[in-house]
């Protein structure tokens, strides 16, 4: 493609050399957004360091050591320096390292980071997106606070960093570095770095591909992990006031590079690499999340033959697959329905047959009973007839006897009367 491009020289001023200025103006008026996640045990100096880094007092109340689990607390602030506005979100890991069983301590952190990616992805997938004024809450930098033990990393540190390294730019720092001796600090730093390497933990690499920052970033990388001291207290040093921590034996100056790496951290995090951290978050970590999520949802860039596969085609393929499955389910349900109906029909037929049999049986017994009753009736009628006949004969006999009796009496009377006369 680039072979088709021809270089032409301009014979006069056109004006597109103002494009970078236009970009700067647009970004300045829009404002910037930066989100920091502080991971570290309660009391390790997270809040103090944030206050020291941004030269202000953020609202924070000290957490207790008896939280039942790890929870993330995010607070957003609007800061302004010259004419640049920065929307800063600081996320604290409340209760980190305070539980006896720390196996799941990393989970809420991973979930929080993923939730911010998910929110951005959902906005991106909307038909009506408003990414221009979207409040981006994705974590741009994770400051991992290592306790100044002088020994080595704790397993909680290694496990947590390993779980986070593909999701966020990790910058490891040794907290409260004023509590560790200079010669021990050097050994501690190299021990930490070798442990990170041997455990395959990927920390944020300061970019060295851009000329303007390559040198400073290369020299600063050597000092990782930065050993920092935080304090918002101003102490008079010579004739100047400076942020420091005062001890009976002396003063630790926060911004003195001989005392600690606070300035290095501020340079790297804010002054030199803030934009790269934002960019890496979008192009590396978010991109990875987005890819995995879309693949999980069945989207692909290529078909099984490695040919390009557009979103439209993926959608169509998914739709057809879905419709096919739906059809299959429907067929299965229909078959099941037909089978059930047949089963029910057979059951009903069986019941009908039983009923018929019962009915026939009843009919038969009814007829038998009826016949018996009729026979009985006939018998009774016959008996009745006989009885009637007998009765009639008896009555006849009785009347004949009566007749004979009355004739006798008449004869006897006549006889009596004849004897009187
Ligand atoms: P968080 O719970 O991690 O936010 O810790 P805080 O910032 O509230 O600090 C807890 C305590 O540690 C406070 O008393 C701070 O003054 C102290 N502290 C903070 N930073 C440092 C430091 O760099 N060195 C020392 N020695 N103490 C510090």
Automatic annotation (TrEMBL):
Residues 357-378, 391-421 are annotated as: Disordered. Residues 409-421 have a biased composition (Basic and acidic residues). Residues 393-408 have a biased composition (Low complexity). The keyword GTP-binding applies. SUPFAM superfamilies: P-loop containing nucleoside triphosphate hydrolases (SSF52540). InterPro entries: G_SEPTIN_dom, P-loop_NTPase, Septin. Residues 30-296 form the Septin-type G domain. The keyword Nucleotide-binding applies. It comes from the Eukaryota. Keywords: GTP-binding, Nucleotide-binding. It holds the Pfam family Septin. PANTHER family: SEPTIN (PTHR18884). Belongs to the TRAFAC class TrmE-Era-EngA-EngB-Septin-like GTPase superfamily. Septin GTPase family. This is Septin. It comes from Apteryx mantelli (North Island brown kiwi).
